[in-house]
């Protein structure tokens, strides 16, 4: 995330929404500003799962739910456990398919630090 932070917004739809610990960020400009203000980080993904979302729930748009969890440290601070869920949707043009993030929900799981 830190090495190519400016490129992160290319992964998102123009009107994508990120909910970061309950704070809503919508649109590419707001997402770019948000990612730029985050301190340096070290992420460790411990679990990753993907499954298709039924077309009836997405108006026949090909969509995949991605669920992750792991640990993150920001700027040398203490480690936090986190969960992050993405909805990826296929953007189809006449000659290619590109998957973009439509919705992204990140949440610290500090209760797990016991």
Description of the molecule:
There is one protein chain. The protein has a six-stranded mixed beta sheet with strand order 2-1-6-5-4-3, covered by helices on one side. It is globular and about 45 Å long. It has one domain: Nuclear Transport Factor 2, Chain: A (Roll). It contains one helix and six strands, in the order ββαββββ. By secondary structure, the protein is mainly beta. The mean pLDDT is 91. Keywords: Cytoplasm, mRNA transport, Nucleus, Protein transport, Transport.
Provide a compact summary of the structure:
The protein has one helix at residues 28-37, and strands at residues 12-20, 23-26, 41-52, 63-74, 80-92, 97-108. With 114 residues, it is mostly beta strands.
Distance between the termini: 27 Å
Radius of gyration equals 15 Å
Based on the coordinates given, report the CATH architecture: Roll
Identify the strand order in the major beta sheet: 2-1-6-5-4-3
H/E order of the elements? EEHEEEE
What is the count of DSSP helices, taking H or I runs of 4+ residues? 1
Low-pLDDT stretches are none
Please state the structural category: mainly beta
How many domains comprise the coordinates?
1
CATH class: Alpha Beta
> What percentage of the residues does DSSP assign to strands (E)?
over 45%
Q: Sum up the overall morphology in one term.
A: globular
Strand element count: 6
Indicate the mean pLDDT: 91
In percent, how helical is the residue content?
Answer: under 10%
How would you sum up the major sheet?
Answer: 6 strands, mixed
CATH names the topology as Nuclear Transport Factor 2, Chain: A
